[in-house]
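Table S7 (text form). Paired inputs.
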Amino acid sequence: MRSGRYIGALGCMALLGTCIATDVSAATGGDKQKSLDFGPPDPPSAATAPAEYRIGAMDKLSVFVVQLPDLPKEQQVDGAGNIHMPLVGDIHAQGLTARELEVALKQKFGERYLQAPEVQVLVTDAVGDRVTVDGAVLQPGVYPLNGNRSLLQVIALAHGLDTKAASNKVAVFRTIKGQKMAAAFDLKKIRKGDQPDPLVYGNDVVVAEGSGTKSVFSTVLQSIPAIALFSAI
């Protein structure tokens, strides 16, 4: 299941890849190829939060309890990551998906007030920027950035790399000047201080290679006409 999502994320980017800038070592050989000016992305456009989105502070939610239709439906996550629901009080929402928050609310309402409560949660306004983390990480998903985050910090949001990950092969996909672009990074060198820890922006897609998808990763990098490569991989 994970490898299928991984291939899909990379495949979509491969179809749109382009480049600008200076020569660096190629991903799958020693040849030179052009890299891009991998700077800040284009301003994000408004979008509905995907199902995997993890709720962030100040996000706005619609919470509907079927058996209690008169309860206020509009909720905003506070700075501590909580929402306040009548009858059950504060519920921690930050870091959960909408489905996970539904489960938590069903449990709370079921403890005292309702039998088999039905709860529907929808993220109506994802205030924080979102980043998609996929591939060989322990918890792939869509995460709120809530401010500037580095690549290492974003990998930590996904609970780190899994045991089959290649830490020297992490790709970041980004839209710059209307074009989909990509850069490859070596986390080993970043952790040693041999390379800077790059900033990750909202709407970036971060993909870590795993042993089961090695050939896919290399094929996608080669298929992009020219890619920013910040390390030889």
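Next pair, protein 2 of 2.
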Amino acid sequence: MESWPHAVRVAPDPPQLRRILIVDKVYPAYSKQYLEVACTGGIQADDHRLVRLFPIPFRLLEVEQRFRKFQWIDCEVRPDPADPRPSTLRVSADTIRVGTAIPSEQSEERRQIITECKDHFSSVEELLRANKKHQTSIGIVQPAEIIGVRAVLKTEAEREEWLERERTVMSQPVLFGPHPKPIDFPYLAFKVTWRCDDKECKNHTMNLHSWDIHELARKYIRDPQRIEKVEEAMRKMLNLEKYDLFLFLGNFRTVQVNFGLMSAISIVKPEIKSPTLFDK
């Protein structure tokens, strides 16, 4: 009788210690497997490439491990076998060690690191071409014009869906590690429309997922003029006359030709010294 060959088990890649500059962090979401996750982006010190760090349950980390934007971290990472995107690295959260930060006053150093990143593109169109040719899944783009911003209230159906995920996560037994914490429902969606300096550009409108903008919106949650105030803050933060604006885009694992606006960083121009929320 012919016997079936034994399945060959491929050993996972060994973890590697990497030094990474954190440049963006999206608002956290519930996860059945990890309780909560906050997708985080950074630039590697050794090759100046963008990477997507996952999963990071940021609020469940030890206090001394909680990094901020433009702060160096050292951590053990390996390719994520569940994610085909080449820039995604699975992080061993317990290995995160926080290092020095580049303060907003050092705008030239921040600007140099970002502009010298090898995943800095002249337009969304150039990023899409790199995605098609090289499977590039994350990139930095500088818009030529901000056409408009909008803050939009989410629907009751979206709120119920969020609360249902919350109930599922909160009801799970936790044998080891920290217990989950409720995450405030992100009651607003933040839409940004811009134009790239590219003849193929027909304008882009994307939701901004940055943790910063959600934290700003929470301050106005009970204000009757919350929409107007958030939109005004967005216009100030994305003012191209005052700031060099860098948009961080990443594609989605399920539809890898579609990109979303993960975060935005405004670096004050050389002749202007006042910082912005996105610059912190």
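Residues 1-10 have pLDDT under 50 and may be disordered.
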